[in-house]
């Protein structure tokens, strides 16, 4: 069986970047990290949207439901400012919230900056898609992905998504000993 290319949504939530006033750095940082970490063939399905809840919700739904992304990673809009609405938009489209992702990202980020307690990133599941909110700063994106990604491939297994494999020199995916690689992967 031919290996199918995995689709991963990358959503940058930024008023300024969506208007062309600011170069998107978060989306490319996510793509670069995933290029290093994943050995499974994958393609990015990028979106750049303003900090508008209906637009963010629509992008997330489209990436999960129409584009078939098993993973959707957002960057930006997770702070306490009035226009930071990414967690609310994400929660609105999710079937289940996975609190541990946000807890772990904040715990790791607090090792670097005391303002990490202001971050509201979260994660959840919509159908067979895992959605994860990341901060907007590229270095914080890498810190957060390093903190939570070991659990991502197994989470995607559990929601019946594709089997993701990682370059263990970059990040080691954790799967329980009883979790077997499917014959079709």
Q: Can you give a write-up of this model?
A:
The protein has helices at 15-18, 26-37, 53-66, 86-93, 99-109, 138-148, 152-158, and strands at 6-13, 42-49, 71-75, 96-97, 123-126, 129-134. With 185 residues, it is an alpha/beta fold. It has one domain: 3-Layer(aba) Sandwich (Molybdenum Cofactor Biosythetic Enzyme, Chain A). A 6-stranded mixed sheet has the order 2-1-3-6-5-4, with helices on both faces. The longest helix is centred in the N-terminal third of the chain and has 14 residues, at 53-66.
Keywords:
single chain; 185 residues; alpha/beta; Molybdenum Cofactor Biosythetic Enzyme, Chain A; six-stranded mixed sheet; 7 helices
Fold blueprint:
Elements: E1 6-13, H1 15-18, H2 26-37, E2 42-49, H3 53-66, E3 71-75, H4 86-93, E4 96-97, H5 99-109, E5 123-126, E6 129-134, H6 138-148, H7 152-158
Parallel strand pairs: 1-2, 1-3, 3-6
Antiparallel strand pairs: 4-5, 5-6
Helix pairs in contact: 2-6, 3-4, 5-6
Which descriptor suits the 3D outline? globular
Give the proportion of residues in helices: 25-40%
Number of distinct beta strands: 6
Radius of gyration: 16 Å
For the record, the count of structural domains works out to: 1
Helix/strand-derived category reads: alpha/beta
């Amino acid at each position: 069986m031919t290996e199918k290319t995995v689709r991963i949504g990358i959503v940058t939530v930024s008023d300024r970047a969506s208007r062309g006033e600011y170069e998107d750095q978060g989306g490319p940082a996510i793509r670069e990290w995933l290029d290093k970490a994943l050995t499974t063939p994958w393609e990015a399905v990028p979106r750049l949207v303003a900090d508008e809840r209906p637009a963010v919700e629509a992008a997330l739904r489209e990436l999960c439901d129409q584009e078939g992304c098993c993973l959707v990673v957002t960057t930006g809009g997770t702070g306490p400012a009035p226009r930071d609405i990414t967690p609310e938009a994400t929660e609105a489209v999710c079937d289940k919230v996975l609190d541990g992702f946000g807890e772990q990202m904040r715990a790791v980020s607090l090792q670097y900056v005391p303002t990490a307690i202001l971050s509201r990133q979260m994660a959840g599941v919509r159908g067979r898609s895992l959605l994860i909110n990341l901060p907007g700063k590229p270095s914080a994106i890498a810190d957060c992905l390093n903190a939570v990604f070991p659990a991502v491939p197994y989470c995607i297994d559990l929601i019946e998504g594709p089997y993701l494999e990682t370059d263990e020199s970059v990040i080691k995916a954790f799967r329980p000993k009883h979790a077997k690689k499917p014959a079709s992967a």
